[in-house]
Amino acid sequence: MSEETLDLCLIAEGTYPYVAGGVSGVVAQMINGMPDKKIGIFYIGSSAELAQKAVYPVPDHVTHIQKVFLFEGLGPNEKHRHWKANAARSEFYQRLGNFLQQTQNEQRDAAFAQLLDHFSALGDALTFEDFCEDDEAWEVICDAFKRYLPNVSFIDYFYTTRFMMLPLWILFRSLERTPKAHIYHSLCTGYAGVVAVEAARRNNARSIITEHGIYVKERISEISLATWIHEAREAYVTVDSDLGALKRLWIAKFRYLAEYSYRRCDALTTLYGGNRRMQEELGAPLNKSRIIPNGIDLGAFEPAYHRRRERLANAKPNVIGFVGRVVQIKDVKTLLRAMADVSARLPDARLVLMGPTGEEPEYFEECQKMAEQLKITSVIHFAGKQNLREALADIDVMVLTSISEGQPLVILEGFAVGIPCVSADVGSCRSLILGDSDEDRALGPAGDLTKVASPRQTANALVNLLSSPEKVQKYGENGRQRVTRFYQQADILGAYHSLYQEFMPTGASG
Fold first, then answer.
1. Which of 118, 152, 304, 369 is the most exposed place for a label (fewest CB within 10 A)?
2. Nearest-CA neighbor of 433 among 422, 416, 446, 417?
3. How far is CA 19 from CA 14, 28, 49, 140, in A?
4. Beta-bridge partner residues of 68
C-alpha cells in the first residue's frame, strides 16, 4: 500500500505543538481553522527533553508528527568509520568543495541541491566519523580556511566548522523522513526553510515559507551576544567593533540557508511591509512575496472585553500586563527596571507577568533576583502561563519590551479586549499601535512606542497612561477598532486557504 499523501505538511522549528509562543499560537489557529485538510507536522527541535509533551491540543486531522532533534548527538551508525577509500565519498567531497567555491547565486544553489542529493544517495556509506577523519574532508576544510579566513586561529576555525556542520548533518539525514504532501509550508527560513523547499523538490510538490520575525535578523542578534562562540580578545575592544570572523561565519551559514529558501520556494509570506523590505534586502524575490498579517478571533475575547469595561467603570487603572516567555529576547529586565520607576511614582501600580518561565531558567532566576534588588517583589507577580481569554479582563495596560518581534499576537489580543499597549519600537509594533495605512492611522493611536532597552521611556509611557483613565479608554477602543477592521482571524485564514488552493494539484482533497 502506497504512502498517504497529505494535503499539507507544516515545518515547525522550535514552535508548535511543543513550545508556547506567538508563532505557535498562529499555527494552532491555522490548523484548527482547516479541519478539511490532512495535515502533518515536521518538528525540528534542539532536544527530545524539550518536546516530550504537546502544549497545544493536536486535532485528529493532524495525522503525522515527525520529530528531528539537532543537538541530541549522533546515532551509532554515524560513529562508524569506513577505512577503505570510496569513489562515491570522494565525489561528495568534490561536490562540497565545488559548492564552497561558487560565488553566483544560481550556480551556488544548483551545487547545493546536487550536494544534498548525493549526500542522501550515499546513506550510511558516508558517516559523520568519515567526515571528521577522511583526508579529502580535511583538504576541503583547509582550502576553505585559506580562501576565506586565513587570519583566524586554525584550531578555532576547525572546531567551529565541525560544530556548525553537526546540526546540518542531522537535518539532511532527516530529509528522507519528511511525509509526502502536496504542499510543504515552513514557518521560518533557516533549517525549516531548507526542509520545506527540499521536500517539495524531491516529492514534486510545492513549498511556501512564512516569516513572522526575520530569521536571519534574529540569528544575528543571538550570535552577536553569544558567549559560546570563541573570539579573539580584540573582538571586544569596543562596543561597536565589528563581529569577529567566527561569528560572521555562523551568520553566513544562516544567511545562506535563508537565501536558498527564498529563491527556491514557490511563495513567500510575511506579516507586514517592513518585514517584506528586509526579505528583499536579503535576496528574496518580490514576485513571490505577499503580506498576510496575524489575525484574532474577536468573538472569543468578547466576554473579557465586557468584564474589563465593567471593572474600569468603578476603578482607577493600575494593572500592567506583560504576556510572553520570560526569555532574554523579551528583555524582561528592562521591564523590571521600568516598573521600579513606575512604582516610585505610582505606588498602587501592579505588574503581572504572564507566560512560561522554564525556557531559559537561568534568565528567569536572574529576573527574580533583580526584582528583589529593585525592591519591587511586592508589586509584581510572575503568574506563569494563563488563559488569556479570561486573564486579560484584569489588565489595564499592556507592555512589551522585546528587542525583536514580528507581529506580536499578544498586542492584537490585548486590543480585542480594549487594552492599550506600550511597546518597544520593534517589528510591526509601530504599525499595530499607530496604524499601517492612511485609513488605519485615522483610527488614532492605541498606545505608545519607546526605544529598545529604555526603562525610563517605558516607565514614562506607563505612568502617562495609568494617570489618565480617559486615555486608557480611548487608546483601548482605537486598538479594538483596528483589530475589527484589519486583523480578523476569519479573513487571515481565508487568505491562507486561497494560497493553498493556488498550489494544490487538481483533484486533491484540499
1. 369
2. 446
3. 6, 11, 12, 38
4. 44
Give residues with Cβ within 8 angstroms of 52, minimum separation 6.
Answer: 18
Grouping H, G, I as helix, E, B as strand and the rest as coil, residue 450 is strand
Percent residues over pLDDT 90 in the chain: 85
pLDDT at 238 over 80: no
For residue 135, CA distances in Å to 84, 88, 101, 132, 464 come to 12, 14, 19, 9, 67
Count of C-beta atoms within a 10 Å radius of residue 211: 31
The pLDDT value recorded for residue 221 is 82
String of b and e for 94-124 (b: at least 16 CB within 10 Å)? ebbbbbbeeeeeeebbebbbebbebbeebee
pLDDT at 233 over 90: no
Question: Cis bond leading into 17, ω under 30°?
Answer: yes
Residue 124's identity, in one-letter code, is: D
CB-based contact 285:218 (threshold 8 Å): no
Q: Tell me how far apart the terminal alpha carbons of the chain are, to the nearest angstrom.
A: 22
What is the phi-psi region of residue 435: left when phi exceeds 0, alpha when psi lies from -120 to 50, beta otherwise?
Answer: left
Encoded amino acid at 389, one letter: R
User: What angle (nearest 5°) sits at the alpha carbon of residue 68, between those of residues 256 and 199?
Assistant: 55
The Cα 301–Cα 3 span in angstroms is: 41
Most distant pair of Cα atoms in the chain: their distance: 82
Collapsing DSSP states into helix, strand and coil, what is residue 506?
coil
Per the CB < 8 A criterion, the answer to whether 178 and 42 are in contact is yes
DSSP character string of 238-278: STTPPPPHHHHHHHHHHHHHHHHHHHH-SEEEESSHHHHHH
342/339 Cα distance (integer angstroms): 5
Which residue's C-alpha cell is 493536536?
58
Are residues 184 and 41 in contact, defined by beta-carbon separation less than 8 angstroms? no
* Cell numbers describing residue 473: 479608554
Helix and strand numbers, DSSP H then E, in the chain: 20, 13
From residue 480, alpha-carbon distances to 109, 303, 415, 487 in Å are: 45, 14, 5, 10
pLDDT digits (tens, 9 = 90+) for 268-285: 999 999 999 999 999 999
Q: What is the pLDDT of residue 239?
A: 34
* Cβ 270 vs Cβ 195: under 8 Å: no
d(C-alpha 363, C-alpha 225), whole Å: 14
Q: Residue 216 is which amino acid?
A: V
Q: Dump the DSSP string for 147-205.
A: HH-TTS-HHHHHHHHHHHHHHHHHHHHHGGGSPPEEEEEESSSHHHHHHHHHHHHHTT-
Q: pTM of the full predicted structure? A: 0.87
Report yes or no: 44 and 65 within 8 Å, Cβ to Cβ. Answer: no
Helix axes 105-122, 154-174, angle to 10 degrees: 70
